[in-house]
Amino acid sequence: xxxxxxxxxxxxxxxxxxxxxxxxxxxxxxxxxxxxxxxxxxxxxxxxxxxxxxxxxxxxxxxxxxxxxxxxxxxxxxxxxxxxxxxxxxxxxxxxxxxxxxxxxxxxxxxxxxxxxxxxxxxxxxxxxxxxxxxxxxxxxxxxxxxxxxxxxxxxxxxxxxxxxxxxxxxxxxxxxxxxxxxxxxxxxxxxxxxxxxxxxxx
Length: 203
Fold this sequence. Notes:
By secondary structure, this protein is mainly β. It has one domain (about 10-195). It has two helices and 14 strands; from the N terminus they run E-E-E-E-E-E-H-H-E-E-E-E-E-E-E-E.
């Protein structure tokens, strides 16, 4: 008999960037369904700052997680990723966060974006610096990843993304810099799109 997965919940702030043009065509705009990325591949970096959360009895509040990788617009829309977990996490917290964000703990993440993950290059403990202040966002995962917002994008209609959930509309931004080098990936982009909002996941 399978052992039931422990229940979990996470809530906090969310910020992402990718190589698409503004406004990212993958996003839902004014309630209209999004489509495919601007280019053949979507090269992304996603960040979550957990303000409240736990998996079972494991407290996950104030920890940070970043996922970087590529979504390929080939059959199955596969994702190939690297996961970075806050180096302040204990061994139990590290494992809990890896399980949740790679979709092994069930819930919304498992049935949404994690369903597309076909390859995980690594799960690394890292010093993660985040600023999720609107229009001043940044991600730093030294020495691998640097992201900085340049400016917010004016949009009078709602914009939402499936990763934090379409029930959490947010703010489209233009990234001043998006530099990433780790595993098989190496890119240095400027003036591409990003998105900031909050999130609340639970089983």
